[in-house]
Write a structure and sequence with these properties.
Elements (H helix, E strand, L loop, with lengths): L9 E4 L7 E4 L5 E2 L2 E2 L3 H5 L8 E5 L3 H13 L3 E5 L2 H7 L5 E5 L7 H15 L4 E5 L3 H5 L1 H4 L3 E3 L5 H11 L3
Parallel strand pairs: 5-6, 5-7, 7-8, 8-9
Antiparallel strand pairs: 1-2, 3-4
Length: about 170
């Protein structure tokens, strides 16, 4: 019997003497919710290309959780713990997710630094405020953010919001 190995899909016999075959998969065969057998179709799909995301948040736990969730959904993710750390990392990013409340410098007042660094590098990144604070969320345009990602801490919601705004 040939079964799927880690990272590969294969065929498995349905019985010891039965020559009929069925497609067998292993959880390790799945990539971003798709099976390897769908890989060729996905490579032709423009939505399948990896979007480069930079996450700026002072919480290491939040960064780790968001990075894992977004990478699992097919995004290429970089992280930064502060505005200062994010300035050199913004080059090449397509989407930048910024936490508002951070020690040192909050996301709103620090946004002009990030936008200047993106412009200097030729990046056409879109900047999104990520918060659960309704007051700061209502003021996202005043600070210069391109949009707002609500429900901070809800990872499936974050992925669905990014899927809706992902650059083509």
């Amino acid at each position: 019997m040939f079964v799927a190995r880690r990272g590969k899909a294969g065929l498995a016999r349905t019985g010891p003497y039965n020559s009929s075959l069925r497609f067998a998969t292993h959880p390790a065969c799945e990539v971003g919710g798709y099976l390897w057998r769908d890989r060729d179709r996905l490579m032709d799909d423009p939505m399948a290309r990896q979007v480069r995301v930079l996450i700026v948040d002072d919480s290491a736990a939040a960064l780790t959780a968001m990075k894992k969730a977004l990478e699992g959904a097919g995004y290429a993710v970089r992280t930064a713990k502060s505005i200062e750390e994010a300035v050199p990392a913004v080059a090449g990013a397509e989407l930048v997710i910024v936490d508002f409340h951070m020690p040192g410098q909050d996301g709103g007042p620090g946004l002009p630094k990030l936008k200047a660094a993106a412009d200097a590098s030729g990046s056409r990144a879109k900047f999104y405020l990520h918060t659960s604070d309704p007051i700061e969320g209502a003021n996202h345009g005043k600070y210069g953010f391109d949009g707002l990602l609500l429900y901070k801490g809800n990872l499936p919601r974050l992925v669905s919001q990014l899927d809706a705004i992902r650059p083509k």
